[in-house]
Amino acid sequence: MEQGNLPGQPAGANPAEAVVVEQPKANDDINPDGHVGTEELEKTDRVLVQQLGEYSEQGNKCCCCCNNYEGENEFEITDRFGHQIFHAKEESGFCGRQCCNSLRGFEMFLSDRQGKDCIKISRPTRFDNCLICPCLLQSMVVESPIGVVVGKVEQKLTLFSPEYEVLDADDTPVFNIEGPSTCKCCSCGCCCGGSRNIVFKIISKTNNEQVGSISKSWNGVLKDVLPKADRFSVDFPPDIDIGMKASLLAATFLIDYLHFEADPGDENQDDNDYGNN
Prior knowledge:
Blueprint: H1 36-43, E1 46-51, H2 57-60, E2 74-79, E3 84-91, H3 94-100, E4 106-111, E5 117-123, E6 139-143, E7 149-155, E8 163-168, E9 173-178, E10 198-204, E11 210-216, E12 231-235, H4 242-260
Antiparallel strand pairs: 1-2, 1-12, 2-3, 3-4, 4-5, 5-6, 6-7, 7-8, 8-9, 9-10, 10-11, 11-12
């Protein structure tokens, strides 16, 4: 007796040949490196960068007989809903931190919830004495995945307002980051009619229009608890790749170190000493 075909099979087809032996493989092009953090960063349009208070300079003073001890910074990067994307850890030399303070060179690794290092940020030590070495401006190199350069951040030489340039892997300028004026004409942000937040505008090189921002939140309410723990929000420009998002994160760290990294022992530093926008 001839075996009948299964429903939906053409006449004469062998049912054994229709059995699926090998399961379909996942599309590796979606997340080729297998990094959860990279995938989540690619999907979000805004992240929050919070310095971890227990690892901040203030906390490290309790662990050292030297009151001016400068420790390695650590940060938590979350999406707008507080969902952790990365944990960032500075790796730097002891002498560099104590002698160079905010100008110190370091490597920073951003790891996801699985503990995998997704992004590496390298910053060389460069002194920026405006009279002796005005050309030694600050810079950062960004790798994602580690070993593949995806972008750079370069400080620009300006007189009053800080500016930075973000370049892609081919050293093509993509964004300018423009900060507020550093003038100290008043001690209260309310006097200028502005908010207490300090905003660095992300300007597109293509049309010279603002497409995003890096904002430092006023921490006056939390100063008694976390006097050195800074908090930033980064609003990414639309339709940019993971390399540019990682580079803008690097720019956020550079801004923090250069403008908000207080000298050890300086407990009276206030955000308004920098300026408000």
